[in-house]
């Protein structure tokens, strides 16, 4: 999927119709890094609640209209993370994808921890009945289906981007998350609300 670069001042939301892009440059690299991804998906039945404000100094990017936000904790702002881009994969905001660059020993691997957000993520049908949902994880954006992400920890493989110019420094990482009803055939029209917190720990 083609993405255009969108320069955005730090701390401001930006539209994700085609892409969103943040660039961070830092000289110090720590052994252990952590990203917190807060994915809040809102639908017509229940408006998505406001997200809790991040800690002092945290930097956010995302779109209020799509209810997708990327939160970078203050501790990560002094690391070797570069070329962070965020983009929405479909108009219903049921898929989330991210791509970033890592330097040094941080490029060895990573794992994802999933847990409910401040307002638990919910999927409801037109009769306002809550439906079971699932989250699938793909470390390669071209992979079909993907791995089912159970609550807890999932250790995923590291993917290098084939583009030579993908990273100014280090290696490129990409992953894709898709949220869907467990029984899509019988779900019918549905809407999303609440939030799901995903923490990416780089090892």
pLDDT averaged over residues = 51
Domain count, please report it: 1
Unreliable residue runs: 1-37, 39-73, 82-93, 104-108, 157-164
Number of strands: 15
- Give the amount of beta strand, in percent: 35-45%
Task: Write a concise keyword list for the protein shown above.
203 residues; mainly beta; 2% helix
Descriptive overview:
With about 200 residues, this protein is mainly beta. It has one domain. The chain has one helix and 15 strands. The chain has one helix spanning about 185, and strands spanning about 20, 35-40, 60-65, 70, 80-90, 95-100, 110-115, 120-125, 130, 135-140, 145-150, 150-155, 170-180, 190-195, 195-200. β10 (about 135-140) and β11 (about 145-150) form a beta hairpin. It is globular and about 55 Å long. Mean pLDDT is about 50; it is low at about 1-35, about 40-75, about 80-95, about 105-110 and about 155-165.
